[in-house]
Amino acid sequence: MTSKIAMRILTAIVALIFLVSWITRSGSGMSDSAFTNVRDGFLITFAVFLTLSIFSFLYRDNPFYKFAESLYVGISAGYWMSYGFWSTIVGNFVPRASRSLSEFFHVPYQERADHILIYIPIIFGLILLTRLLPKIGWLSRWSLAFIIGATAGLNLTRYLRSDFISQVSNSFIPLFVDWKGAGDFVSHISLAADGQFIAILSNWVIFVGVMCGLVYFFFSKEHKGAFGVASRIGIWILMITFGASFGYTVMGRISLLVGRITFLFGDWLNIL
């Protein structure tokens, strides 16, 4: 009972702050139109409310966070459903299906002999909707199997070309870049980023890292002696790679956080 009273008091405080912020932001609007100032004030205040509601999860789960989360998921689902309708159905199906429908949606009609093939994905799409009907929901497995199988087949060749073959080809690098002898190398040695020494060092790091990483995943021989040393170096290479990847991801999230903080202290509070 006490928690319900506390939540009601907190909701009233949040509503009061929201109202005060709306009035303040509406009064400080730059437009000559009162309606525009009120609208912009509401939008900024509502954006602040949603931002702080998401941040409130750092304390604990609460109704404000659930509201912001549900609103975000619902709007995203609605947006992508609308985008899929206009880009897939209106953009691809309607121009091939009917001249009258094309005129209704104001898209150019494409008269082709293979238009009958466009009905095959439509049938699979309708079968997929049987998932909502428990008695015939098993029919949707045919559509799901086709989607998963086709996606796996298409992505297999794409990832094989972009990831596997590309990485293998990029691993075949010269270990001695522009090598003209030890004397020339020593006389022209430089620590510049585009120098020969740095290029050779970088290629050796890539070569040793690839080989030691492969050695770590070779389990047909016990990791002892020189083989074990290479395996341990491979572990370090993998951990550094994973750490750099994680750090890159964190940097992206930090940039989002900086954007939200800039919005709160700049656009809302006018401190920045």
Notes on the protein architecture:
- The model has no long low-confidence stretch (mean pLDDT 89).
- Helix 5 (119-128) crosses helix 6.
- The protein has 272 residues and is mostly helical.
- It has helices spanning 2-27, 34-55, 63-97, 99-105, 119-128, 140-171, 182-187, 196-216, 225-268.
- It contains nine helices and no strands.
Summed over residues and divided by their number, the pLDDT gives a mean of 89
Give a short account of the largest sheet: none
| Secondary structure category | mainly alpha
Beta fraction: under 5%
Q: How much helicity do the residues have?
A: over 70%
Whole-number count of domains: 3
How many helix segments?
Answer: 9
Order of helix and strand elements from N to C terminus: HHHHHHHHH
Bulk shape: extended
Strand runs, count: 0
Task: Please report the distance between the alpha carbons of the first and last residues.
Answer: 42 Å
What kind of oligomer do you see?
single chain
Stretches with pLDDT under 50, minimum 5 residues: none
Provide the gyration radius in Å: 30 Å
